[in-house]
């Protein structure tokens, strides 16, 4: 199959596909599978893996064409980790067999993914994780505990980092796996948050068996694979596509317009500054997604995620001020385990409380500032502190 030479030919290919697979009469899953097989899922992925090897910039036009035709989507908000993190990592480090097995049902939404990285004793310092994977014949036996796992109660598979060699420096003793969440040794328990919901979970792994065929990358290469995943995660969290004045800043701007009686010069100045910050972040996100499409996710994603967290927290706080006593109301604190996080579809109280976690999830803001300082700005790393040496002697 010859890839389209330009956007016009790509549009014609989509039109032919829609003519052969009428969205009005084709069953949803059959339609999504056919779209993947036609290379119109991720157009920038290689042929045979949902794409046509085209620039990622062409993806938006393809998605818009399908949406205009009333075609079903793959419900991307319910599989953010799979689409934004697992898929790029499998494409970069997976074997051909792994790509064939996992990418298609991942894109169609038949299999939801979660991320088993953070641990109670190794949150910001991922390389200090203690979960062990021990070789056993043609597979591995995993024991340990993971925490803050989004969608673990819904996931079919997980991306997992475990320690396979405790006798080498911590960054070298890790290996990356694709874990079957239906294994009887996987125990998922909800973690109720300040919002009242439990979108996060803690996961206990007891003698979980993972075939070596589900190892991603070489043994001991887990840190390099995980770093690639984290770079794409930060772009997925902080660099999502949005229209101008979309997302949180759009909600606050709407509240400003609806409540002229609450306006003050100080609030006006704060709103304008945040609006400009949000627009700069949106345009920067477009550039980062183009780099990601070229297979070059870099540390700049840390800056985007850092900005996303700050903006969400400042905007949600401003929204409460504009709403006055109305902003103190909270519609529902019932314990539920949602399928997705939805900021824009909830009330202001939920947005204010939920945004507090933005500076923790996906890498804490403190860690991300170090990444930006050292890997983006080229500043020297902070000196290591020896707890056994008095501070006054270290300062000499």
TrEMBL record:
The keyword Iron does not apply. Its cofactor is FAD. Pfam families: Acyl-CoA_dh_1, Acyl-CoA_dh_M, Acyl-CoA_dh_N. It comes from the Bacteria. Residues 114-208 form the Acyl-CoA oxidase/dehydrogenase middle domain. Keywords: FAD, Flavoprotein, Oxidoreductase. Belongs to the acyl-CoA dehydrogenase family. This is Acyl-CoA dehydrogenase. It comes from Pseudonocardia zijingensis.
